[in-house]
Amino acid sequence: MKKPEPINELLSEGSLGSLLTRSRFLQQLTRTVHPYLDPTLKNHCQVANFRDNVLVLQVNTPARSTRLRYQVPELINALRQVPELSGLRKIDIHIAPVDQVSTPVLNVRPSPSGQTISVINETANQLNDDGLKAALLRLSRNMNKKPASS
User: Fold this and answer.
1) Cα–Cα distances in Å, from 48 out to 26, 32, 57, 116, 120?
2) Hey, is 107 helix, strand or coil?
3) Model pTM?
4) In 80-150, which ranges are E strands?
5) Cβ partners under 8 Å of residue 22, min gap 6
6) CB count in 10 Å sphere of residue 105
7) SS3 3
8) Count of CB atoms within 10 A of residue 136's CB?
9) Following DSSP, what letter does each residue of 4-17 receive, concatenated?
10) pLDDT tens, 27-78?
11) CA–CA separation, 33 vs 85, rounded Å?
12) Alpha carbons 56 and 73: distance in angstroms, whole number
């Protein structure tokens, strides 16, 4: 039986290792670019790619894309002063909306207050319609029951 390999060796080998290295490189570039961005864009912009001296920035809305496009000429000049980006030719901007993570909807109803149950009982007792009266009394009884804990 083969001995398990340490996780750091697995992460440093093959395509997974190169993907991890590339991801770290792009994160570092994002940290390098952020100080040159308008403060309102920093939390909404990241480096998506850097290849052939073209920097690809990703923003999450069209409005931020437009704002960033106005800054591109100054941004290119400023970033060319950074050693890793000295050959920068162009900046492309892509819009990639952040997926909204939907939180699961829990099927939990709030417990009715004692006052609510009392109002339902009083209403039921004042009714002449026996069917409606019975339904409201059943409802108030069911509201009094505590849900079974799992």
Assistant:
1) 7, 13, 5, 55, 59
2) coil
3) 0.58
4) 90-95
5) none
6) 6
7) coil
8) 18
9) PPPHHHHHHSHHHH
10) 999 999 999 999 999 889 999 999 999 999 999 999 999 999 999 999 999 9
11) 10
12) 14
Q: What tokens appear for 137 in the block?
A: 């009394």
Edge-to-edge strand list for the sheet holding 45-51: 45-51, 54-59, 90-95
3-state helix vs strand vs coil in the chain, percent to 5: 55, 15, 35
Numbered ranges of CATH 3.30.300 in the chain: 16-95
Topology (CATH) of 16-95: GMP Synthetase; Chain A, domain 3 (3.30.300)
How far is Cα 1 from Cα 3, in angstroms, rounded to an integer?
Answer: 7
